[in-house]
Specification:
The structure is a single chain. By secondary structure, this protein is α/β, with parallel strands linked by helices. The protein is built from 9 helices and 10 strands. The chain has a 7-stranded parallel β-sheet with strand order 1-10-9-6-2-3-5, with helices on both faces. Strand 2, helix 2 and strand 3 form a beta-alpha-beta unit. It is globular and about 50 Å long. The model has no long low-confidence stretch (mean pLDDT 96).
């Protein structure tokens, strides 16, 4: 596992955006050989998305031959609901880049048969050849996607009941009214994420510090689904200084030392 420590959220976002851009440029995707991204929602990736939009507008990267699969979607929200993840992705990313609409994949939380929808999603990921780079955020309790504490580390895309803590945290997007927050969601599994060729996790703020410490230093456990990243051959956590507050001093110094030549985002595209 790599741990990239940036000074603040702005630099974290820029490093992540340039890293994704470097992978796209290196892959040089074509219609017959697209590059496949797994994408998150939430507040953590917003800065990265803005960076990627700017790089796209400057002609540095194109999303024309990129296929995307989003991590999750609420059950029961109309796709055009302001807080659906369909709307989130359109408003914050897809409407601002040159991606083909047919290459965008988001789970249908209104499907008449939700388990069948989950199976279809897994099959489509497999049919594309798998995900090249899965990007995700992390919850304060260490969950990735909607794989709450206790989720199997081998889980696949499925219907998942949200914890009270997650509902309370997400209520900030629903006028702070927990009654408006859906109780269930469709989510890719931990196993789905770990199948990707690379995984990049974004973590910012002191409230993510305990989760980062568990993800880097803790034992692999379904209590903290982020710990599954320790078993991935190409896993990266990029975080800001505040998210490092719970790391042991030796761990912090170790990663600062070995990654000191990899912090400059400009070098990623050179």
């Amino acid at each position: 596992m790599r741990l990239i420590i940036q000074e603040n959220y702005a630099l974290l976002s820029k490093w992540a955006g340039y890293y994704v851009a470097s992978k796209i440029r290196k892959a040089n995707p074509s219609p017959s050989q697209p590059y496949v991204l797994g994408l998150p929602t939430g507040s953590s990736p917003l800065g990265m998305y803005q960076c990627l939009i700017e790089l796209n507008k400057k002609g540095i990267i194109s999303f024309e031959n990129i296929i995307t699969f989003n991590m999750d979607e609420y059950v029961g929200l109309p796709e055009d609901h302001l807080q659906s993840y369909h709307s989130f992705m359109k408003d914050n990313f897809f409407d601002h880049i040159d991606i083909r609409p047919e290459n965008v994949n988001i789970l249908n939380g209104n499907a008449p048969d939700l388990p069948a929808e989950c199976e279809r999603y897994e099959a489509k990921i497999k049919a594309t050849g798998g995900i090249d780079l899965f990007i995700g955020g992390i919850g304060a309790d260490g969950h990735i996607a909607f794989n709450e504490p206790g989720s199997s580390l081998f889980s696949r895309t499925r219907v998942k009941t949200l914890t009270t803590d997650t509902i309370i945290i997400n209520s900030r997007f629903f006028d702070n009214d927990i009654e408006q927050v859906p109780r269930t969601a469709l989510t890719v599994g931990v196993g789905t994420i770990m199948d990707a060729k690379e995984v990049l996790i974004l973590a910012n703020g002191h409230n993510k510090a305990r989760a980062v410490a568990q993800g880097v230093e803790g034992a692999v456990s379904q209590k903290w689904t982020i710990t599954a990243l320790q078993m991935h051959p190409k896993g990266i956590i990029v975080c800001d200084e505040l998210a490092c507050d719970e790391l042991q001093v030796g761990t912090y110094r170790y990663f600062k030392d070995i990654e000191k030549n990899n912090l400059d985002y400009n070098r990623l595209l050179s």
